[in-house]
Specification:
Radius of gyration: 13 Å
Strand content: 35-45%
Structural class: alpha+beta
Helix content: 10-25%
Number of strands: 4
Order of helices and strands: EHEEE
Distance between the termini: 29 Å
């Protein structure tokens, strides 16, 4: 996996992966409110997942979207 250079909007959250849609909505709201443009699909980084703990409440996920300012 190669991460393209550029600016990224990101958010971290703890808990179940089922929350991803809620946090994706927050990111896209921010993008729209700040006149940004998403350059591709979002991706998730699982910082703490089932490999480190079996407690969903301890899971830590980061969602990133590459963005640029709209012209």
């Amino acid at each position: 996996f190669v991460l393209a250079s550029g600016s990224y909007l990101s958010i971290h959250y703890r808990g179940s992966y089922q929350q991803s849609f809620t946090y994706l909505s927050k990111l896209y709201t921010y993008i729209n409110e700040h006149k940004l443009v998403a350059l591709g699909p979002p991706f998730e980084l699982y910082k703490i997942d089932f490999h480190e703990t079996l407690k969903e409440s301890e899971f830590l996920t980061e969602i990133q979207i590459q963005v640029v300012e709209s012209t």
